[in-house]
Amino acid sequence: MQKSALKLDKKTAALRAEHWCAYQERSQQEVRDKLYEWGLVPDDVETLLAELISGNFLNEERFALSYAGGKFRIKRWGKIKIKQALKLKRVPDKLIEKALAQIPADAYWQCLEDLAHKKTGEIHDADAFKRRAKLVNYLRAKGFENDLIFDVLKANNLY
What we know:
By secondary structure, the chain is mostly helical. It has three domains: 49 residues, Arc Repressor Mutant, subunit A (Orthogonal Bundle), CATH 1.10.10; 41 residues; 51 residues. Helix content is 72%, strand content 0%.
C-alpha cells in the first residue's frame, strides 16, 4: 500500500514543522525533506527554514552536538560512524568536528575497552587469529579508529 502524499498549505506546514522540531533536534536537511514531502514549493521551503532558524526551533550546531553525544552514549558508536551519519544528514564539516570534539577522550577510550572486553567473551572460535579478526572487525563496524582499536587490544592483552 503506497503512502499518499500529504499536501499542506504554508501556515499549517509551519505549525507542524515547529512541533516536529520542538519534539526532537533535527538537521536542516531532515526538515527540508519533510517540507518537500508535505508538498511545499522550494521558495516556501526555504522561507520556512529561515523562520524555524530565527525562531530557534532549528539549530544545526545544537543538532550536531545532541546527535553525536547521543549516538556515543546510547548506541556506543565510534567517531568514524558518527561522522559518516552526520555527513549523510548534510551537517557542515566544521560542526561535525565540533560535535566530535565534545566527546571526552577518557570516556571514548573506556567505551572502546568495554566493548572489546564484552565482545571478547562472546567470540567462541578456536583459532586465535580468527577471534582477533572478528573482534577488530566488530570494533571497526562500531566506528572506532584502527590505531585506537589496536592500542586497546594491546593495553588489555586481548590479542
